[in-house]
TrEMBL record:
UniProt domain NmrA-like: residue ranges: 2-293
Species this protein is from: Hyaloscypha bicolor E
Protein's name in the database: Putative NAD dependent epimerase/dehydratase
InterPro entries for the chain: NAD(P)-bd_dom_sf (IPR036291), NmrA-like (IPR008030), NmrA-like_oxidored (IPR051164)
Family recorded in the similarity comment: Belongs to the NmrA-type oxidoreductase family.
Entries under PANTHER family matching the protein: NITROGEN METABOLITE REPRESSION PROTEIN NMRA FAMILY MEMBER, NMRA-LIKE DOMAIN-CONTAINING PROTEIN
Lineage summary: Eukaryota, Fungi, Dikarya, Ascomycota, Pezizomycotina
CC terms in the record's Gene Ontology section: nucleus
Keywords: NADP
Length: 315
């Protein structure tokens, strides 16, 4: 009889990677959680033979049934969905920022998932995709990295409220998406070549990962280890300056250099309200405190028996 892995966020990059690997893995069966079983993404998984169950992380009543029979659970929560939803602005409390609201929503999603998971007697393992608490690890200097904070607070809730479930926990601190070099990073083409402008020095080694390819392998490595591991989602530890050099070499274009910005400068360059400050503080934290904030409990993939390499992704 196969072990059941329930994947939250199966239609996203991380969950999709986990489902793709484990649906082909001997001894495993995958069940995906989706808000809309009729969506194109959900139907694509159904066509591959993956069981799809409709449930919303914001509705805790549906989650115990969705998790029923699971031996393992992969968890992602959603900050960016409400952040980019225009209707969210009408839901803000007085003096509440968009980032604060979305962080609160993500924290509540985590609480709902962990409350439900604690009721599943068959559950042996839970793997959570999370990030560190930038505010705490910076001594309160970077309070506005809300898309990290909600995830970190949800894990704190898990450990404090469900210690038995926390004993089954492994965590992935997901690094920078390599796919951003194809989509979201805005390189500037000058007469001398390509330039990249971000907050920070650009010289701090940071984790970069091919999320769609490698998340599933990280989760498998964690499930093959005893619980309690926190692994950094890193294909390579490489600085922004070095990544820019590799990108230019792979694409056979000239390298012009890296421009260091302040948070205020970066915020002015980002047209989405609130996003520039959010990401600017994130980049500043990573540059000064490193991606995991110096947390010695966060280990590289090689320490859980898996080696990732992804520099070729920039080509």
């Amino acid at each position: 009889m196969s072990n059941l892995l329930v994947v939250i966020g199966i239609t996203g990059q991380q969950g999709g990677s986990v489902a793709s690997l484990f649906s082909q893995e001997p001894g495993w069966k995958v069940r995906g959680i989706t808000r809309n079983q009729s969506s194109h993404s959900a139907l694509a998984w159904t066509s591959k033979g993956v069981e799809m169950v409709q449930a919303d992380l914001n509705d805790p009543s549906a989650l115990p049934a969705a998790f029923a029979g699971a031996a393992a659970l992969f968890v992602t929560t959603d900050f960016w969905g409400p952040f980019y939803n225009p209707q969210t602005l009408s839901l803000l409390k007085e003096h509440q920022t968009l980032g604060e609201y979305c962080s609160d929503i993500e924290l509540q999603q985590g609480k709902n998932v962990f409350d439900a998971a604690s009721q599943i007697p068959t559950l042996e393992r839970i793997v959570v995709s999370s990030l560190v608490d930038a505010e705490t690890l910076s001594g309160g200097r970077f309070k506005g990295v809300y898309h990290w904070g909600g995830k970190a607070m949800a894990l704190k809730y898990l450990r404090e409220s469900h210690p038995e479930l926390a004993g089954k926990l492994s965590t992935v601190v997901m690094g920078n998406y390599m796919g951003n070099w194809l989509r979201d990073l805005k390189l500037r083409k000058t007469d001398a070549g390509y330039r990249l402008a971000l907050v920070g020095s650009g010289t701090t080694p940071l984790p970069h990962i091919d999320v769609e390819r490698d998340t599933g392998y990280l989760v498998r490595a964690l499930l093959e280890c005893s619980p309690g591991k926190t692994v950094l989602g890193a294909g390579e530890m490489i600085s922004w300056c070095e990544m820019l050099r590799v990108w230019c070499e792979c694409n056979e274009v000239p390298l012009a250099g890296f421009d260091q910005l302040s948070i205020d400068q970066f915020e002015r360059f980002v047209p989405v309200p609130g996003l520039g400050r959010e990401l600017g503080e994130m980049f500043a934290f990573m540059d000064e405190f490193e991606y995991a904030g110096g947390d010695a409990n966060v280990v590289l993939p090689s320490e859980v028996g898996y080696l990732l390499v992804c520099s070729e992704y920039t080509n």
